[in-house]
Every structure is written in C-alpha cells, then in structure tokens.
TrEMBL record:
Top-rank taxon: Bacteria
Transmembrane segments: none
Chain segments carrying region Disordered: 117-149
Keywords: Metal-binding, Zinc, Zinc-finger
Record field: compositional bias (Low complexity): 131-140
Full protein name: SWIM-type domain-containing protein
MF annotations from Gene Ontology: zinc ion binding
Ranges of compositional bias, category Basic and acidic residues: 117-130
Ranges where the SWIM-type domain occurs: 64-97
Amino acid sequence: MLQTMLSSEVMTKAAERLMKLLPYKKHSDIIKRAWQLYRTGHVYNVTIEDNVLKGKVTDKGHTYEPSFRLKQAAGSSCTCTTVGLCPHNVALFLYAYNQIDAVGNLIRTWKEPATKRKKAESNEKQKDVQVKQQTVQQQKLNEKNRSNTSNNANIVDAWWQSFEEKYRRIPLYNITEEEHMRRLVQSFFPTFERPTSKASFLDHLYYVHAALFTFIKLVHIPQKSWGYFAIMQERHVEQFSSTVQQALINLAKKPRTKSHEQLLYATIPYVRNVLSGELTYFRQILDVYEIIWTTVLTDETYRQEECTWAIEQLNKKQTVEEKIPFIGAASYVSFLLENDHRAYQLIEPFPYLATEHIVRFMHMSFAKKQIQRGVEWFHRLEQNVETYLYSLHITEREWFVQHVLSAYVQYRIATKNEQTERYEQLLQKLLPYSFYTYIDYLFDEQKWKELIELYMLEKTTVDMIHPLHLKAVEQADRSLVLPLYHQTIMHYIEQKNRSAYEQAIKHLRKLRAHYRALKQMPRWETYITKLAEQTKRLRAFQDLLRKGKFI
C-alpha cells in the first residue's frame, strides 16, 4: 500500500523544495495542468522505491511515465521529453502527496507569496518548540508515573485518560461532522510531536496510542450519506489511517524489553475498540487493526487469545452488520496463526469480505515464499468466482473482476506458470464484466474465430470494433467477419430511419467486396435476394438498394 511507504516528513520537505523550484506566479500553467490531471484521475500505477516516485499519466490521448525524486526534485524526468519539471512530474507528486494531506491545502499554500509563507513557517517553528516543551513535560510525568506504579496497564490507562481530557477541551459545539474530523486531525493530533527514529520505544508507543485514540474518535463520527462533506470525511479517515499505520511501522522497528511487552499486552483492549467504529469506515478500520497484529502484536499467545475473543464477540452479535468486524478480525488473526482452514471458513459466506481477504492472504503467502499456501488461497477464490460475482451488487462487480484478475497475475508470477487455458476459463466465467480484457487476450493469442464470436455474443457492430482488430481478422481469415457484417447490417436496418439505412448500405458494399474476394458470389446473390425480400416493405431502404445497384 503506497501510503504506508510514504514518510510525512519526506513528503513535506519535497513539497517545500517543489514550491521553491516552481514559484506559482511564474509556473501557474504547469501547476494548474498538473492539478487538473490529478483531479480527473489521469494518474495511476504509482509506486515508490528509494524515495523515487514512479507512475503513469495519461494526457491528451498519450501515456507518459514520469519519475519524481522526492529528495532531488530538479533531477526528476518524464518520457514526454520536457526539459525540467513537467505537469506529469507534478501530477505524480500531487497523487502521492494526497496520501499524507489534502492536495487543496498544498495548492493554497503554493499560491501564497514566498514572504508570507516564510513568516508562517517561522510561526510554525515557534509552535513546534512549545509543543516539544509540552511533550518533554508529559514524558517526565510519564516517567514519574512509571516509577510510582508496577502495573503497566495503569500507565496505558493514564495515557488514555490524559488524551480524553485534552479531547474534551476541543470546541465542538454546533459544528458539522466534517469539521469535527478536521479539528481532530489538524488541531488535536499535531499537539503530539512525532518521535524521531532515535527516540525510545516508549516514546513511539505513546505516539501510537495518541494516534489510535484519534483514529477511534474519527471512525465513531457518523458519515454523511452523500455529497462533498461525505467525500471529505472519507478522505480524513483514509489519510489518518495512513498516519496510524506509519506510526505502527516505526514502532515495530524499535527493540523491546520485557516491560515493553507488558505494555503491549495492556494495549490490546484499546486496539479492540477500533472494531466498534462506523461500518462505513470498515476498510480503514481493518487496515489499522491488521497492521497492528502483523507488525507489533506478534506474540503467538496474544494472537491465540485475540482470535478466541473475536470469535466469542461475533457469536454474541445478532445481525450480520454487527458480526462483520469480528469475522474480519478473527479470520485475519487465524491466518497469522497459519490456521487457513478456520480463516477461510469465517469469511467464505461473505463475498466482498472474502474477496479482499483471500487476495491479501494469497499475496502475503507469496511474499513469505509460501508458494503452495498462496496457490491454495487462489484456488479458493477461483472455485467461488461465479458465486461471488453474481451475489455482489452490480456496482461492485467491476471492482470484483479487477481484483480477481489482479490476483491471477500475482498467482502466475509466483508459480512461474502461464497456464493460458486456465486464464481464459477465468475470463469466460467473469463475462460480461471481463469483456474488454478477454477481447485483448484473444487478440494477443491470435484466436480470431473466438474473438469474432465474442464480439457477436455481445451484439457488437463492425463500427464498435477497433480497426486494428478488424483488419487483423480480415488478413488472417476474411470469411470469419462475414457473420459480423450480417449482424451489423440487420442492426442498422432495424432502426428504421434513413441515416441508419445509409450505414447498412455502406456495410453491404464492404460485405460484397469480402464475398467477391472469397470467390463466393453465388452466396452473396442468395443473401442479397433474401435481404431484399425481407425488407420489401421498407421503401426508403429499397430505394437505397436500387441506387446502390444491389437489386
């Protein structure tokens, strides 16, 4: 996941360098174009490696592959061959920046004059000093608490009590749900200074608890049903989910002592509170819950206890909506315990949950070089593919097909086995939602007969087919396109208007040329005679047939 690999500090500094390299007043055309490309979804397949962003950007019908160096923006490049930074580089950066903060905030800052921005940065530094002093005082208080008590759970409880007291001081009267979230993310949480990599385990754990507290508050705020505020709420939760995950990844890198393990055990009840959030944020909730149990809570005893607890909770719940979070939790922890049978049994009846979990479990198995385990997970998905597809809402089926085909690619790479027949069977099972992918596959494999049959099955006309596909089939075997032209001609005749008749006549000329090239003119004469008889009541079409000298 991209957001888990991005450092907020690196991204912020990269943004500062970019604003200096491209002052808004002089380069507004580049920035506006980049902003437009990003907002309209033209940036995709974004990855990061060694602090270099790479991805693809479609612009005016062309696809470019920019790369953006986060620590040396001036050295970025793009296949569009522009000298220096281009809109594609900047659009790529905006896509990545959105994972840590709203791009709109960056654009507003960019537009500000440099002098005003420097003054704001100076004020921020002064605030940071004050926050750091407060944090030092808090840490001293924590040290005092630790020396005065032998119960580690009390330390964690004290942290959460202090978070709650600070939270109550936020002015929340008569504000929208979105503004409530904004204040949590932009005003409340920043008061907890992010620890450096050299900070102690305890400092990182304290920061993780502050992040968890904020996240739990966020996911308990109901989401608006639709509109701008609903979109912004989703974005706040998604972006802060990345913040929590990064904090957990940083914590997992720190060495632990026995007392630290006791503190982690005392953390578990607070982690469980994440599962009680609004179901509309279910994906983000599971992301946070799962990464905790993957990276930090790695003790097998803890995991066994957690799995038992989650199963007990789901058995107590009455409705499916109440059970779902605990099913997802129990299944994931079961997988970590390598109890794949139980992990699958829990999720198998729920198509959406099962699809995401099975693909994730397969990917994790392959990443651990557990090839056979990953293969078994793919087989579980494969055997349920049609059942899951048609049990999902129609709006979710495209997502499902893309997920399944992406899983097959991972499976093929891991097993180093192309198995084209198996892939084709999968594409057939996923029709009609796999139509375009299947078309491309048949074209690449030069299965011309099957290609035409698929086009006809979907009632495609000649005009809807890519000219490259049509030309390739005609060159390979001209006779294969004859039924397609028959179907196209009838499609236009059935519309019963003059412009459609003219289209039918155009394709009749092409069809006659194909019959002539195949030296099958008797078949053509039989066909055109029969067509003229069938359409004898359509006077306008009959006139065009006579003018075209077909009859």
